[in-house]
Amino acid sequence: MSVFVQYLVNGLTIGSFYALVALGYTMIYGIIRLINFAHGDLFMVGAFAGWLVVAAAAGMHLPVAMQLLLALLIAMLAVGLLAMGIERVAYQPLLKSSRLSILITALGVSLALENGAMIAFGAGFDTFPANILPLTGFHLFGAQVGYVQVAMFALALLLMVGLYLFVQFTPVGTAMRALSFDQDAARLMGINVEGVVLITFLLGGSLAAASGVMMGLYYTQINFMMGFLMGLRAFTAAVLGGIGNIPGAMVGGLLIGVLQSLSAGYISSQWQDVIVFAVLILVLVFKPTGIFGERVVERM
Amino acid sequence: MATRVGAWQPLVTRWGPLVVLALALMFPLGANSYWLTVGIGILTFAMLGLGLNLVVGYAGLLDLGYAAFYAIGAYTTALLSTVGHMTFWETLPFAVACSAIAGVIVGYPTLRLRSDYLAIVTLGFGEIVRITATNLGFTGGPNGIYAIPAPSIMGYQFFSQDSQYYLAVAFLLVVLFFTRHLAHSRLGRAWLSLREDESASEAVGVPSVRVKLWAYVFGAIFGGLAGAFFAARLTAISPDSFTYTQSINILMVVVLGGMASFPGVLLGAAVVVGLPEILRFMQLWRLFVFAIGLVALMLLRPQGIWPAASRKENPFGPGSERKLGPPLPLEALARSRDGDGEDAALDVSGLRRRFGGVLAVDDVAFSVRPGEICGIIGPNGAGKTTVFNCITGVTRPDGGDVRLHGHSLRGQTPHQVVGVGLSRTFQGIRLFKNMAVYENVLVGMYPHQRATVVDSLLHTGRQRREERDSLLRCQALLRFCGLEGLAGHRASELSYGDQRRLEIARALAAQPKVLLLDEPAAGMNPSEKQALMGLVRRIRDLGVTVVLIDHDMNLVMGVSDHVVVLDRGRKIADGTPREILADERVVDAYLGRDENDEEVNAWPS
User: Fold this and answer.
1) Please, what is the end-to-end C-alpha distance for chain A in angstroms?
2) Torsion over CA of B308, B314, B319 and B321, rounded to 10 degrees?
3) Domain for residue B503, yes or no?
4) Which residue of A100, A111, A235 is in closest CB contact with B287?
5) Domains of chain A: which residue ranges?
6) Model confidence, pTM
7) How many domains does chain B have?
């Protein structure tokens, strides 16, 4: 029991990181039908941005809480702007072309971000200061729960709820939802489509950055290729939840985290990705649009 | 962006391949061992690209785990030649068979998924294969398999770089031969039609799931073949060669070169493998510059470096008689009604369909006699199109039955309905927009063509005869619909009225007993409508029973022998045009009561 709870707690923590990245995949797919392969790499850039800020702030002897807050905010803003820039330069001109050409462009951007980071930060690992976060925690059903885990989970949840409220209750959020149904109709209703798409990238990018900073702090080690596996898993999470569906991405992310933690714990970490993908394929075979996805009815 | 057929085009198509082949064969004379290795890499990726091109470029199925088939071919050859002591050539059939089976395993349960979901399933499959190979004992784990014997022919061992390079050229030529044959066959056209519009393709008689499965299987076969070659050439393989990144590289070859374009794939392979090597002097910056170049290239040429020609040569142009033989007379299109039997051509009884709380079709029954033109009218929302969709198997009715010359169509899928002899057109035009006009019609012939997959692969005499007959029939159909001169145009280039007529030609290609036309006159001007009425009558004269829906009273009343009126899902009248115009309920429900009935009087009766 206690072992199971421990796996569950660890899985939920990692799952909340996945969920934040999965949200970006799902939002961007929802409005421009693009699987943004560069999204995992934005997460990586976020981690490095946070690392740079922590290093700089530590140099200025700022209190730890201040360091963390600054790292989070600056990373989110920087990566959000980067995502907007990428959309403007590399994706927007291709929105009317075949969907595969924009997909290849996204792969090119991903490769450029990875190699750019490698040139800037080297191919090895960089580490966050080890003592920056408290290691204390409490016991729950015999499992060790760190305060850090709780705080990160809560922060992730807060961001997700914030996003959900934004999409549901603000004019821009309404415009985003309208765009996901029919871009041409939305344009005819006077919505600035390009602007809304840019805001979607801003939001998606900053959520990925938040996830990157938290993951970097949680595992302390960061590397230029860390976005690759994250991208794969977050994309899986988004599809599992039903791509284009915001609550679906949250649930999908948490599920993938838990599934991975359980299969690594009870079976073997070597097989964890096989199990995750096998579950995904099974879900899709029986529920072809993911857990929360709606059936798309085609008109004749 | 249409690439015009220029004067240089015939020269390029005739001599281009030979020049490229000659250059490829001379390459080892001037290349050192490093560039030979790069050359072999390009050739291997070209094989993989050609295989994946069938899946992505032709059938339009996004595959992100293609390296799995490459891996399965490579591991099969590696295991059978090291543990099973087979020669390379003996392992080939097994490598091909294993990858084909893997293709069926991934394809069968997942092909009903929408394309983006398919993408992640293939990605997952690719990772599963790689991780499994990494973790199992008999595949050598992360180290892979060593000491795979090199291929040999009659004692000659392919050890040297030069010999391996030529072997790769030979393999590529074989793959090119077969993939080109497939692309220029009924299967290749069916793939393209699926890429363009899956439901339209199914509705003109293409069995979409089976055809997609063939795309998967052939993609897998050529991937497996490339894998087998790769294993024997390197004499050692490990899971690192079959990563997700590798799948992405192969996908880049296809999209960068130009989808469904053979020269494009070859160029794409040269760029994806060659460019990073040329950039090697940049050291650390190499892949970064490559990535930026990739993005720039896609921005400049979204359709690929060498896209497939958007306009084809008119196959019925001057000189076509030498190739095809004399054109068929239009009478050849007539069908004999001898075998049709005594039953009604189309008999609809008790048809019901509910959408949520709305009863869209409520107990509709009508019967169409062989050889007549039956019009179905009714105000918007009367359930006309739903009736069509229920008849053609697009929508499953909640109750009732549809019989075509006595055969029940209940539970049949759209392509099966076409096979039985019922074709349709769509309310909103649904052509295969990026295919040539004549190709659209040829896709419509799919249900009647008999060339097997093996015929398509080898272009046997039977396949060639059938293609010639199909083209002649296509020519006659296009002439019948007044489109012969436009045969080589892209369907999307046609005017609105021509597109409507092309849809009719495509539907007639399936040799239907009954043809359903869903608002054929929508958006046409009066003179086009007049011509359409003539066309509908001429179709009837071919021996085809016609059922048409339209809003245009002049058209329906003028052309129909028999009119059915629907209102709010129910049939409210059924009779000759004259009876319908006199019917009080019709006037009430549909035509509305007008003080001065000028308009009604204006109708032909």
Assistant:
1) 54
2) 110
3) yes
4) A111
5) 17-226
6) 0.89
7) 2
Task: Name the phi and psi angles at B380, rounded to 5.
Answer: -50, 135
Instruction: Return the SS3 of B237.
Output: strand
- Domain presence at residue B276: no
- The verdict on ipTM greater than 0.90 is no
Residue with tokens 């060639």: B464
Q: Chain A contacts of B300, Cβ < 8 Å? A: none
Residue type, A10: N
Residue of B nearest to A35 (CA): B116
Tokens of B260: 């469904």
User: Where is the domain boundary, B191, B222, B256?
Assistant: B256
Instruction: Tell me whether A284 touches chain B (CB under 8 Å).
Output: yes
In chain A, what residues touch B299 (CB-CB under 8 Å)? 90, 93-94, 105
Q: Which residue among B204, B226, B256 closes a domain?
A: B256
Q: Whole-angstrom Cα distance, residue B380 to residue B376?
A: 12
Residue from B106, B122, B125, B128 whose CB has the most chain A CBs within 10 Å, to mutate: B128
Instruction: Let me know whether B223 and B367 are in one domain.
Output: no
Domain of residue B529: give its range. 338-602
Q: B284: which chain A residues are within 8 Å (Cβ-Cβ)?
A: 118-119
Instruction: Mark out the alpha helices in A87-146 (DSSP H runs).
Output: 99-121
CB of B284 less than 8 A from some CB of A: yes
Interface check A131 vs B, CB under 8 A: no
B356 and B247 within one domain: no
Please list, residue by residue across B55-65, b when 16 or more beta carbons sit within 10 angstroms of its beta carbon and e when fewer do: bbbbbbbbbbb
- Tokens for B395? 């929508």
Least CA distance to B394: which residue of chain A? A300
In this structure, are B237 and B343 located in the same domain?
A: no
**Cα gap B101→B119, rounded to integer Å:** 19
From first to last of its 300 residues, what are the pLDDT tens digits of chain A? 788 999 999 999 999 999 999 999 999 998 888 889 899 999 999 999 999 999 998 888 888 888 999 999 999 999 999 999 999 999 999 988 888 888 889 989 999 999 999 999 988 999 988 777 877 888 888 888 888 899 999 999 999 999 999 999 999 999 998 888 888 888 888 889 999 999 999 999 999 999 999 999 999 899 999 998 899 899 999 988 988 888 999 999 999 999 999 999 898 888 888 888 888 888 888 887 788 876 444 333
- The answer to whether B499 touches B447, Cβ cutoff 8 Å, is no
Interchain CB contacts (distance < 8 Å): A and B: 131
Domain presence at residue B355: yes
**Which of chain A's residues have a Cβ under 8 Å away from the Cβ of B426?**
300
Q: Measured between CA atoms, how close is B352 to chain A, in angstroms? A: 19
B394 in any annotated domain: yes
Same domain, B472 and B353: yes
